[in-house]
Design goal:
Layout (H helix, E strand, L loop, with lengths): L3 E8 L10 H15 L9 E5 L14 H5 L8 E4 L5 H14 L5 E8 L6 H8 L5 H4 L5 H18 L3 H15 L13 H5 L7 E3 L2 E2 L9 E8 L1 H4 L6 E10 L13 H14 L8 E4 L4 H11 L7 H6 L16 H5 L3 H16 L13 E8 L4 E9 L2
Parallel strand pairs: 2-3, 2-4, 9-10
Antiparallel strand pairs: 1-7, 1-8, 4-7, 5-6, 8-11, 10-11
Helix pairs in contact: 3-14, 7-11, 10-11
């Protein structure tokens, strides 16, 4: 039996959205999601707003910003949620918990971030707050340095040079992103460009090049979570079969940086709760903030044994036309990574596939989806299992 259902969704374009006010971003996706679900403003019982901020914007305390543009939602309970790069999934869990507790018939979940008003150096410093400051604040390269200079280097030292594999992941996701109208970068860069260092693709941190790093983006996404009785009357619905949330130690020094143990446990819990195996999923949207992350996530979800994730991508298993598509949306790599919006976006992309509304991104088979969204370096780990209600 489903926990609840996603009954409406909306997604802004991701990218450098100059002159677009954050209030306008969140209100537009909120109105579009409510309309898509066929609901009135009066039927929304709670609002769950995810944004990391961390210094991207001077304006904080955003929980009531939506009311400036949609006064009809005045006096609804509205909560700001934050859990680093998993902020969007934390907001999703907040909305789901409200529905499951009986406090909401329909919960509005929004994720957004406005990042591009800061310089690249400032963005790197702000994102570094998602690591353990006492030990990792001085890592060269900002947050990219955590994944490049610590995680990727440790993985390469233990299992050998993975440059072919991470380039193949980057090329796959850019190829998929070219079909995504919401993506920050809609360009198929090709394997050769991603594989080789050049003026346009320099090293950023450790063995990671520019094409191994997700885009700094602005954007917003929203969805409606409805209780089972109310969901039946909606024009489209996607069942939420299971969720899991696992937090690990924040310092990388207290765990193996080459194994996302919290992610592995979250996957195990979610699949067990859904009563299925990984192979029962049609596709996965996973958190490829850096290509090395997607590689390790293949192992965390159970597609490959430790150190063998490279073979999965090199054999074409996770291509859009492969046996187990991963990131048919283009992932964070091509779609962009507006931190607070990412987790909500991943759920929206999966819902579009399962409802047969993904347009040029649509997979031939889309019955069940897995979503993995993480905060920090596999610190806050969220997995959702969604199923088509068609």
């Amino acid at each position: 039996m489903a926990l609840a259902a996603i009954t409406g969704w909306a997604h802004s374009k991701f990218g450098k959205l100059d002159g677009v006010d954050p209030e306008e971003m969140i209100s537009q996706v909120a109105m579009d999601a409510i309309m898509h679900a066929g609901l009135s403003f009066d039927e929304i019982d709670s609002i769950h707003l995810g944004t990391f901020n961390g210094g991207f914007l001077y304006q904080d305390f955003p929980s009531s910003l939506l009311l400036n543009k949609i006064p009809e939602l005045r006096f609804r309970p509205s909560t700001r949620v934050e859990n680093a790069c998993a902020t969007g999934s934390a907001a999703f869990h907040s909305g789901l918990n409200s529905v499951r507790a009986g406090d909401s018939r329909h919960a509005l979940v929004i994720g957004f971030e406005k990042m591009t008003e800061r310089s690249n150096a400032e963005v790197g410093e702000i994102l570094l707050k998602c690591s353990y400051a006492k030990e990792e604040a001085g890592v060269a390269g900002g947050f990219a340095g955590v994944f490049g200079n610590i995680i990727a280097r440790a993985y390469f030292e233990r299992y050998g040079d993975q440059s072919d594999a991470i380039a193949a992941i980057a090329a796959k996701n850019h190829r998929n992103g070219a079909a995504n109208p919401y993506a920050h970068m809609r360009r198929d860069l090709g394997y050769e460009f991603c594989r080789h260092v050049s003026d346009k693709n320099p090293f950023v941190a450790g063995p990671l090049k520019r094409t191994d790093c997700s885009m700094v983006s602005d954007g917003a996404a929203a969805l409606i979570i409805s209780a089972p009785p109310q969901a039946l009357a909606r024009p489209q619905r996607v069942s939420i079969k299971a969720v899991a949330h696992v937090n690990d130690f924040l310092p990388l020094s207290r765990r193996d940086p080459t194994a996302f143990e919290g992610g592995r446990l979250a996957w195990g819990k979610a699949l067990s709760r859904a009563g299925i195996a990984l192979e029962d999923l049609s596709f996965v949207e996973t958190h490829d903030c850096f290509t090395i992350a997607e590689l390790i996530e293949y192992e965390a979800m159970g597609l490959a044994k430790p150190g063998q994730g490279a073979q999965i991508i090199l054999d074409g298993v996770t291509r859009k036309d492969g046996r187990f598509p991963v990131n048919p949306s283009g992932g964070l790599k091509a779609k962009g990574h507006p931190v607070g919006a990412t987790g909500v976006s991943m759920h929206v992309m999966a819902a579009m596939q399962l409802a047969g509304q993904a347009g040029d991104m649509q997979l031939a088979r889309a019955d069940r989806a897995g979503i993995f969204n993480m905060g920090g370096a596999a610190v806050a780990n969220y997995v959702s299992i969604l199923e088509s209600a068609k």
